[in-house]
Each structure stands twice: as C-alpha cells, then as structure tokens.
C-alpha cells in the first residue's frame, strides 16, 4: 500500500501540486519541486536556514511534514520581493552588509518578516529574540540586527507593515 499523498500548495502566489511520501518534509518537497532558495542546514530545527512562512507564520520547513502544509500558502524568500522590487528587508540586508555568505539570509529575512508583522517597532532586544532561532556564522549578527532596524524604519516611514 502506497503512503504517497497528493499535496497542493500555493507557493509564492502560484499553485503547486505534487506527490510526496507521507514522511517527506516540506523542505525536501519544496526543494524537489525546484524551490532551492530554501536552504537545508541542520535538518533538525536548530539553525533556521529552512524557514518559510506557512499561512504567514514562520516555520522550520525541515520539521514540517509536507502533508501538514497541504492546502495552505507557503512564502519563501523569493515570494517577498524581486531583484527589481526588493522587500525592504531584502534591501536593508544588502545595504547594511547583513548578508555575507548568504546561506542564513533567507531564513533570517523570513524570521524578520514575521517579527515586523507582529511588532513594527521592535527594540534591539525584540529583534534578538525574534531572530534567536536563526544561526549565522559570518556576521556576528550586528549587521543583521541593523538591517532589521533599517527595514522597520523604512516600513514605518512608508506607512506599511511587514
């Protein structure tokens, strides 16, 4: 008896349908479907590199089974902006040097997006807490925290929320 399941998602605004075994994680399924912007780090929920928004809430896709997301909306880093029209967080990470090697950047930006949606005026402590599930080995976090502060300020200036 097959344990494969037909999964239907809306990924970055587009419908995606695929067959996946019941044990396949959302990370594995999305990467298999070509969404390689989602990074595979620790595969045990410790690093945050695989973070995506599931119905607007951040999740570690390595800990989420694909069938759990069936019928839901997934947003990856590519769903936030484009090179021509970057999200304020993407722009701030570039401008402040918050993205060095770039491996942790998608997960950091996803976590920051969720933080700013919940708290558009975060303190430095709020930012540290909001990004605490994401690891970076390059920046020492200072520039990442600065990027979130810059983006928050720009969003407030625009009268927008994350």
What is the average of the pLDDT values?
95
How many helices? 5
Oligomer: single chain
CATH class of the largest domain: Alpha Beta
**How far apart lie the N and C ends?**
45 Å
Query: Which radius of gyration do the C-alpha atoms yield?
Result: 16 Å
Could you name the CATH homologous superfamily of the largest domain? Beta-grasp domain
Going by CATH, the architecture of the largest domain would be Roll
Which strand-content bin applies to the residues? 15-25%
- Elements, N to C (H/E): EEHEEEHHHH
Q: Largest sheet, if any?
A: 5 strands, mixed
Overall number of domains: 2
Quick structural overview:
The protein has 162 residues and is of the alpha+beta class. Helices cover 33% and strands 17% of the residues. The protein is built from 5 helices and 5 strands.
Please explain how this structure is put together.
With 162 residues, this protein is α+β, with helices and mostly antiparallel strands. The protein has two domains: 4-79, Ubiquitin-like (UB roll) (Roll); 88-158, [2Fe-2S]-binding domain (DNA polymerase, domain 1). 33% of the residues lie in helices and 17% in strands. The chain is built from five helices and five strands; from the N terminus they run E-E-H-E-E-E-H-H-H-H. It has helices at residues 26-32, 88-96, 105-118, 124-130, 142-158; strands spanning 4-11, 14-21, 51-54, 57-60, 73-75. The chain has a five-stranded mixed sheet, with helices on one face. Helix 2 packs across helix 5. The longest helix is centred in the C-terminal third of the chain and has 17 residues, at 142-158. The radius of gyration is 16 Å and the shape is globular. It starts with a strand and ends with a helix. The model has no long low-confidence stretch (mean pLDDT 95).
């Amino acid at each position: 008896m097959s344990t494969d399941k037909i999964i239907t998602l809306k990924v970055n605004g587009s419908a995606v349908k695929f067959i996946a075994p019941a044990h396949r994680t959302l990370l594995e399924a999305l990467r298999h479907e070509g969404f390689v912007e989602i990074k595979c780090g620790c595969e045990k929920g410790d690093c945050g590199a695989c973070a995506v928004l599931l119905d607007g809430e951040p999740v570690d896709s390595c800990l989420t089974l694909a069938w759990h997301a069936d019928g839901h909306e997934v947003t990856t880093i590519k769903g936030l902006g484009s090179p021509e029209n970057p999200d304020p967080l993407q722009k701030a990470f570039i401008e402040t040097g918050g993205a060095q090697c770039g491996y942790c950047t998608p997960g950091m930006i996803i976590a920051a997006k969720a933080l700013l949606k919940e708290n558009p005026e975060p303190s430095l402590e709020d930012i540290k807490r909001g990004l605490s599930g994401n690891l970076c080995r390059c920046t020492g976090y200072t520039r990442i925290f600065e990027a979130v502060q810059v983006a928050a300020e720009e969003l407030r200036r625009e009268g927008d929320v994350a």
